[in-house]
Amino acid sequence: MATSGTAAAKNAPATWRNWAGNVRATPARVVTPASVGELQEAVRRAAEEGLRVKAVGTGHSFTAAAATDGVLVRPQALSGILSLDRAAGTVTVAAGTALKDLNRDLARQGLSLANMGDIMEQTVSGATGTGTHGTGRDSASISAQIRALELVTADGRLMTCSEKENPEVFAAARIGIGALGVVTSITFAVEPLFLLTAREEPMRFDRVTAEFDQHVAENEHFEFYWFPHTGNCNTKRNNRSQGPAAPPGAVSAWIEDELLSNGLFQAVNSLGRAVPAAIPSIARVASRALSARTYTDIPYKVFTSPRRVRFVEMEYALPRERAVEALRELKAMVDRSGLRISFPVEVRTAPADDITLSTASGRETAYVAVHMYRGTPYQAYFTAAERIFTAHGGRPHWGKVHSRDAEQLAEVYPRFAEFTTVRDRLDPDRLFGNDYLRRVLGD
């Protein structure tokens, strides 16, 4: 069967690695479809040959959700805004569009998403497919802002999904983990561009945990970072503002975002990896160096920041009322252990949503994320943290390291069987399956 040059497979199999370098795969071939028709053709051909199919974005997931030994689809040629409906407040974009490009294009149109995560390198399909989120009292994950989507199913058909059209698939496919098909386009809710005022302020761990519910209630977007081996945190409160815009100055922004958060942080982590015993002292000095700052800018410039220091991450979604207790247990565990943790622990929140396998499905949620510098052994820390999180009813982020399996996940996701029923109907032969999905969804 002939294929166009843009969709042609590379001659020699090449090893694919994710951003963190902890997942790799060697697909039989890689395809880069330049149209939905080419993608449908690639899916049909893979099915005829008995090869499995996975789409991969920028590889920012820490799990093997996109790994395959079959056909690896790179959707980046399917990019850009396809349509914009100001009256309906929606924008439709191709699946391979990078969030950074979408954010910038929307801003030029005087529009914005309501909420977003803290990085914007991912493709829109990769970010939504794994449940990427930011923090918000009232506004939820990027997936919760989806109003419609299209995906190529295992038989090569193009299916349109929304609350009115194939609603049971829509409920599941907004966070589909790549199990239901290959997403080709997504329609997001958007709103007129607005300003956010960010207030960053150091705060002691005991105070921020004691006042956690108050901070969440009083701010549209609240998050904080705790520095292990210390009692110090940095808090961030983002709230809508009438303006005027007052972005950080070029020098202060470079110091904060490039020197401290990337350049110096890289050096500190490299030192910590070489001399783990130095990490607690480094953490105490670094956390005491934090200072308060306030600035006002358009949303994506406030919500997101560059992340050039590579790491491995595990994140659990907890019932919000259990978060503080879990955090205190996590701190106590680190304090009494011989672990040396150079990355801060990140805490965010989300309102309940109605997406089948959303980590916030049906409940007010707090997220606790633990990280380790790339190349540093993380298993002992993550295992101990996971034990605490699961004891509090935690749900693991679909794109981040965890050890849960389908039986365990079915206990914390009340709509788990609903998702697997949709999967059985759309992909009975598991064309879009892989080892990760077999573990977390069953077979």
Q: Name the strands of the widest sheet in spatial order.
A: 16-13-15-14-18-19-17-20
Which runs of at least 5 residues are low in confidence (pLDDT < 50)? 1-11
What would you call the shape? Answer: globular
Query: Largest sheet at a glance?
Result: 8 strands, antiparallel
Distance between the termini: 31 Å
Beta-strand share of residues: 15-25%
**DSSP E strands, number:** 20
Count the DSSP helices. 14
Backbone CA Rg: 21 Å
**Overall mean confidence score, pLDDT:** 92
Helices and strands: which structural class? alpha+beta
Which bin fits the share of residues in helices? Answer: 25-40%
Question: Could you give the topology of this structure?
Answer:
Elements: E1 16-17, E2 24-25, E3 29-31, H1 36-49, E4 53-55, E5 71-73, E6 81-85, E7 90-94, H2 99-108, E8 111-112, H3 124-129, E9 146-152, E10 158-162, H4 167-173, E11 182-189, E12 191-192, E13 195-204, H5 205-210, H6 212-218, E14 221-226, E15 232-241, H7 250-274, H8 279-288, E16 293-297, H9 299-303, E17 311-319, H10 323-336, E18 345-350, E19 365-373, H11 379-391, E20 395-396, H12 406-412, H13 416-426, H14 435-441
Parallel strand pairs: 3-5, 4-5
Antiparallel strand pairs: 1-2, 6-7, 7-11, 8-12, 9-10, 9-11, 13-15, 13-16, 14-15, 14-18, 17-19, 17-20, 18-19
